[in-house]
Write a structure and sequence with these properties.
The chain is built from 6 helices and 14 strands. 44% of the residues are buried. The model has no long low-confidence stretch (mean pLDDT 92). The strands form 4 sheets. A 5-stranded antiparallel sheet has the order 9-6-10-13-14, sandwiched between helices. Strands 1, 2, 3 and 4 form a 4-stranded antiparallel sheet that branches. Helix content is 37%, strand content 21%. It is α+β, with helices and mostly antiparallel strands. α1 packs across α2 and α3 packs antiparallel against α4. It has one domain: Creatinase/methionine aminopeptidase superfamily (Creatine Amidinohydrolase), CATH 3.90.230. The termini are far apart.
């Protein structure tokens, strides 16, 4: 698929993201007590394959219970390579337990990377974390528009976490990333993967790392000096991940940073945004 036109490119990424969220919503609706993380991840992969996905930036992940807070073995920072504890395991879902579903399909040459949080039944901590996350969604493009460096924006997320009384658990991710850049994938599609990551997508990310090193920017957006540069135009998969004790929640979606220094989310019709709008309407009606 060739998508040289900017409008067509944005439409392709938006469609890929919608498909990824549709996948997560479909599997979340089918979660049952006793289901393992591996079973949930496999169902996501099967659903995506049934809807035309043949390639991945990374294959689906699922985390249940205290694993949503990325503590213990899963919280070890994998600064070189990827921690196997991140991968879906044998943890079984229970009533009231938090969950996170995460997948990154490649559709044509467009990459989506999404995170979907919830609970099996009622979980007040998850509900509060989801409310808190909307503040981060509003904060990030506002800080970019204010002329902050990418590291400063990430530090503003850290500071908001402190004010909310939660932890920025994305700091347990490889390279402590808040986000990573995505781009149209070059070359022919590849079904090969390494440690659940697609080879074509990994090659592109490595190319961006090399390009950024030469030009003074990083495709891995975090709070360190490596990201202390002006916002880099393009698409970024942004994933603030909040934790409170043994419960975590996040969203992950595509942010478009423009050449003019502004930023906007690629799509406002996403599950966590709809949830917030519903809750806001309910509060007004009360």
């Amino acid at each position: 698929m060739s998508i040289p036109d900017p409008a067509e490119r944005i439409a392709a990424f938006r469609a890929a993201q919608r498909l990824a969220y549709d996948c997560a919503e479909a599997i979340a609706a089918d979660l049952r007590p006793g289901m393992t993380e591996r079973e949930a991840a496999t169902r996501m992969k099967t659903w995506a394959a049934d809807h035309g996905v043949r390639e991945w930036f990374h294959e689906p992940f699922a985390w249940f219970g205290d694993r949503t807070a990325f503590r213990g073995a899963i919280g070890i920072r994998a600064l070189r390579g990827f921690n196997p504890a991140f991968f879906p395991g044998g943890r079984r879902l229970e009533e009231g337990m938090a969950f996170i579903l995460d997948c990154a399909p490649v559709v044509g040459r467009a990459v989506a990377d999404i995170g979907y949080s919830g609970a099996l039944g009622h979980n007040p901590v998850v509900e509060q974390l989801m409310d808190d996350l909307i503040e981060h969604r509003n904060l990030i493009p506002r800080e970019i528009a204010a002329g902050r460096s990418m590291a400063e924006v990430s530090r503003a997320v850290d500071a908001l976490c402190r004010r909310q009384g939660v932890e920025p658990r994305h700091k347990a991710y490889p390279y402590t990333v808040l986000a990573h850049r995505v781009e149209v994938l070059p070359g022919e599609a590849s079904r090969f993967s390494l440690a659940r990551f697609g080879l074509r997508a990994v090659r592109e990310l490595r190319r961006q790392v090399a390009e950024g090193r030469d030009k003074g920017w990083s495709p891995l957006w975090n709070s360190t000096e490596a990201s202390d540069h002006p916002p880099v135009p393009g698409l970024w998969a942004v994933e603030p991940h909040l934790g409170f004790r043994d419960t975590g929640a996040k969203f992950e979606e595509l942010l478009l940073i423009g050449d003019d220094g502004g930023a906007r989310w690629l799509d406002d019709d996403l599950p966590h945004v709809r949830r917030f709008e519903t809750r806001r309407s309910q509060k007004k009606a009360a």
